[in-house]
Here is the input.
Amino acid sequence: MATVPATPAYALAATVPEWLNKGDNAWQLTAATLVGMQSVPGLVILYGSIVKKKWAVNSAFMALYAFAAVLICWVGWAYRMAFGHKLLPFWGKADVALGQKYLMQQASIPSSGHYYKNGTVETAEITPFYPMATMVYFQFVFAAITVILIAGSLLGRMNFRAWMIFVPLWLTFSYTVGAYSLWGGGFLFHWGVIDYSGGYVIHVSAGTAGFVAAYWVGPRLTKDRERFPPNNILLTLTGAGMLWLGWNGFNGGDPYAANIDASIAVLNTNICAATSLIVWTILDVTFFNKPSVIGAVQGMITGLVCITPGAGVVQSWAAIVMGICSGSIPWFTMMVVHRRSTLLQKVDDTLGVFHTHTVAGVLGGGLTGLLAEPVLTSYFVPVTGSRGGFYGGVGGGQFGRQIAGALFIIGWNIVATTIILLAIRLFVPLRMPDDELQVGDDAVHGEEAYALWGDGEKYEASRHGNDDIHHDGGNGRKVTVQV
Here is the structure.
């Protein structure tokens, strides 16, 4: 009987080192996959279905392209700019995140050290119990969805070639700054600003950059702004559902371990999202007499965004409070303030990303500064004694730090996004020409989402077949239309 040769001891040691926690590693890879699915296929489906039919392909492809482009840039240089060694107080040194030796070692995030008078370091580095490869991939899916969220402000008119250039530039010069400053050991990290899972790094930055980009790119055609119906609301709900459940990985993965804090974060995430959706729907019914499905999706998103800065550092009753606020305040800015503001009306933010992400993200960060519970905060924040303002003590300063952190992210994104787009504009037009905007997907990609014609589109016999169109007119009657 043949015997199976034993695996060499050195091979076992290489694949299962003593520091590896298989449970943490399995959860982190699962969480990363959930976050990745929020983008592909989640936002691909949501974007492709929430827009007018003629923009379904372009909108979905903007998301798919960004997901792929960010990954190559991420492992090439951007990961180390966000989570590497210090270059500036708000930026890490660019370097590749490839190579077997690097990816197999234990994950770590240099924190630059938080020193006290006696010379000790409070938080020298963060060292989860899994490989660097897991950390690189987990952080990639966060970077990817941030760029894809920006696309939501630009659907229906941005030149795809300009988008191809914008993605790597914005990732490099904007996203990495926020990620390093708040997560990678930068100055906001050591100042004690709380951004548990990206309320600032991802949502405030995406909403701000999207709004600024929408200004520079310019608006959609007037008729598209006036009437832009979703081409498939059921698929919109499908994409929204993937976004909601994927958020379990979004917030549940940020303790970097399968621990109690992860469980609390997942529960709080769902509580806040559900509360916010219900509040938004109630407001729609109260003031518009109809429960809007798209409105419910927006309420869900604002709830998910609002809880993100504090998901693992607030109690569940606080998640309900945050849900009530996220279902009402962004609703007010979108439905009331937006319609009365000349500036907001001038900027064509296609999906209202400014309201659902910037407003909800700043709101969540501010509420975290008030509601962060001391014990939970001690598990996550590197500054000893951090707590929300409602818990007394040194908590009074936390709210101020949260607002200052949000202002830094907003300010950097306004400047960086403007410079990037003005530079791109020197070589490539930011907006499609009007003739392409009239046609949509077929003019841009030579492809269409559905093998249908109508909705005011011009019928062309060379593309659609015979001059006589036969269809069922109802009750079995055949109707011939001369075109």
